[in-house]
Amino acid sequence: MAGLFEKSASLSLNNFVIFLYLSCLTTNFTASTTTTSAVKTPSRFATKLIHRDSALSPARLACLGAKAGFSNNGDTCASLWSTIYGQFLNRHSEPPVPQLLTIDTGSNLLCLQCLPCTKCFEQTSPTLPSPHHTPHYHAHPQYCTISPSDKCDPSNNCKFSHEYLDGIKVAGLIGTKNFTFDASDKGISTVPNVVFGCAHDNDGYNGQPSGLVGLGPSNISLANHMGSKLSYCIGSIRDPNYPHNKLVLGDGAKIEGTSTPIQVYNELYYLTLESISLAERRLEIDPEIFKRTESGSGGTVIDSETIVTFLATGAHVVLRDKVQKLLDGRLEKVEKPGVPSGLCYKGKIRQDLIGFPDVVLNFADYGEGDFCMAVQVSPEGSDLNVVGIMAQQHYNVAYDLAASQVYFQSIDCQLLDD
C-alpha cells in the first residue's frame, strides 16, 4: 500500500475511521508509595489501553505550532481533556482506587491533582492525598527549569504553574516519588523516583481524568525514565470494546516494522515526510511543504493526542482535489458544518467505497449514512503537518529514542498480548 514515508518507511493510513465522535485510548496506571527502601527500576512494563471520547484537534494543532517556534515552553500543549487516557491505582489507600490520566507523546511531565486543593476540579476517582508526608517523596529544586514559569519557594521546593491549551490552569509542586503501575504482564510494577507534579491549585476543569502522563523526549518524562523505548498498538477507534490496545515502556517495547528517522525539536517528535501517494501514484506536491524551516516552523510531527491528520494548505488542496475527482459523480456530496476538509458524502463507507484506491488519508463516519475525509487543512497561518492518532490505528508504533527511529508495523494488536 502507498504510504506517507515513501523512501524511509511505508505507513498507510486506515481508510475508514471516525471523524468527530471519536473514541480515545486509555491505560491502567498506578501511582503509589512503597515501603521498600531501595527499588530498582523495572526494565519494562506493559499496560492495556482502553477507549474514551474526546475532541480538540484544531486547538491542539495550533498549540503544537506555537510550541515548535519557541524553546522551553513547558507542557502547555497538553490538554486535560484529551485523546488518550490512562488509568492508575492509588495505593495510598486500601483497596487501591483507579484513576484516569491522559497519555500524551507531546508533553513530558507526569502531573496529577493532589489534596489539599486551593481549587479542586471534580474527577471520577477520589483525589489523591498529598504525598509530601508519605515515604519516598522528595522535593527537587533542580526541576524548576522545566518551564519558564517554574521557580523555587522559600523552602526550596520547586513550584510549577501551567496553563493548558483548553484554558485549564494548574499549579503545585514538583518532586520525585515511587509509582506502582498496574502492569498487564506482571500484575504490579513499581518505578522509583518518577518526576511528577502535584497540582494543588486547579482552575477551569471538570471531568474524568486526574492528570496527565507525558511520554515526550525530555529526560523528565516517564518514557525516558524507563529507558529509551516505548510502543503502543491501537486497534479500531470505532470499537469501544476492543480489548487489545496496549502501551509498553522499556525493553519490552516491540521495535519492529518499517522505520523512519525522528528528530526532536522543542520536545516534539518530527518525521521526514517526503511525499503523499494516492492509488500508488505520487501526488504532485512540492516536497518543501513538508520540511521544517530554519526558523523552526513547518515540518511533520507525529502525535498521540491530535485526532485527525493535518496537512499544510499546499498539500491538502492537491490531495483533496484528487479525492474529490474520484468521488464526485459516484456519491452525493453533503455539507457538514465544522468539517474543515469540506469533503463529505452521503453513503456507507463499507458499501460505497468498495474498490476505492489505497490512499494516505482517513475516511470517517460522520453521523448516520454520511462520511467525511479525515485529513484536515492546517489552520490559516500554520504550515505544520501532523500525523494524528486516527492514522496510527492498526499499527504498532514504536519509538527507539536512543537510535532516533520510529517504527510502524501493521498488525492485529491481539498478536502482541502476553
UniProtKB/TrEMBL annotation:
Membership in a protein family: Belongs to the peptidase A1 family.
Every Peptidase A1 domain range: 85-409
Organism name: Malus domestica
GO CC, alphabetical: extracellular region
BP GO annotations: proteolysis
Pfam families xref list: TAXi_C, TAXi_N
Keywords per UniProt: Aspartyl protease, Glycoprotein, Hydrolase, Protease
Protein name in UniProt: Peptidase A1 domain-containing protein
InterPro entries recorded: Pepsin-like_plant, PEPTIDASE_A1, Peptidase_aspartic_dom_sf, Plant_Aspart_Prot_A1, TAXi_C, TAXi_N
Gene Ontology molecular function terms on file: aspartic-type endopeptidase activity
